């Protein structure tokens, strides 16, 4: 924060681009559900899958950027808006199911990671556990779907990594506040 004006330091173009890139690079892992959607024999399933996954990716990046901007301006992330964003993200992931089948479960990795970045720790832990258990439960409940242990591992790994990122962001915010 610029002490002479009381305004936050402007974020350079480089860091604005890097922030988007940091969120967007992980979207690479949506390649499996995207490939499934693109290979659907019915055009409507293909369209629903692709459109939902693109909307999911855009929503994820925008949600991440919004939370990052909140922290950079030393404002807390409003929990209600964060919850609403996560529910919307989950809904869009579910909407991809006609085109992606069981591969929609990959979106849970992003929902779990975003929850760690956006929510208070206990709520985030609950979301991560729900996201980790969902692939196992769906394999029991949906005929033809197999247990997705890779998704469970990815949910836990991504959540742990995002915990480190969120702790770093929190420490940086605290450091900025102390410098004021």
Sum this structure up briefly.
This protein is mostly helical.
What can you tell me about this protein's structure?
The protein is built from 8 helices and no strands. The chain is 75% helix and 0% strand. The longest helix has 31 residues, at 149-179. With 180 residues, the protein is mostly helical. It is globular and about 60 Å long.
Key traits:
180 residues; mainly alpha; 75% helix; globular
SSE inventory with pairings:
Layout: H1 13-24, H2 31-38, H3 43-72, H4 79-95, H5 97-100, H6 107-118, H7 121-141, H8 149-179
Helix pairs in contact: 1-3, 2-3, 3-4, 3-6, 4-6, 6-7, 6-8, 7-8
Main sheet overview: none
- Low-pLDDT runs of 5+ residues are none
Please, how many helices?
8
Strand tally is: 0
Q: What string, H for helix and E for strand, traces the elements in order?
A: HHHHHHHH
Question: Kindly, what is the distance between the CA atoms of the first and last residues, rounded to a whole number of angstroms?
Answer: 7 Å
Structural class: mainly alpha
Q: Kindly estimate the percentage of residues that lie in beta strands according to DSSP.
A: under 5%
Shape: globular
Residue share in helix:
over 70%
Mean pLDDT: 84
Radius of gyration equals 18 Å
């Amino acid at each position: 924060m610029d002490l002479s004006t009381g305004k936050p330091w402007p974020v350079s173009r480089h860091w604005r681009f890097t922030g988007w890139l940091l969120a967007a690079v992980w979207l690479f892992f949506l390649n499996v559900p995207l490939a499934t959607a693109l290979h659907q024999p019915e055009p409507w399933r293909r369209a629903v899958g692709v459109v939902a996954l693109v909307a999911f990716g855009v929503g994820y990046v925008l949600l991440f950027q919004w939370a990052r901007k909140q922290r950079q301006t030393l404002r807390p992330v409003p929990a209600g808006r964060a919850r609403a964003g996560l529910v919307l993200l989950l809904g869009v992931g579910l909407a991809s199911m006609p085109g992606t089948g069981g591969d929609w479960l990959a979106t849970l990795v992003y929902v779990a990671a975003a929850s760690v970045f956006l929510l208070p720790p206990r709520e985030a832990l609950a979301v991560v556990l729900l996201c980790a258990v969902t692939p196992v439960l769906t394999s029991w409940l949906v005929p033809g779907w197999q247990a997705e242990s890779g998704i469970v591992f990815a949910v836990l790994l991504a959540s742990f990594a995002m915990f480190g990122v969120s702790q770093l962001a929190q420490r940086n915010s605290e450091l900025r506040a102390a410098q004021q």
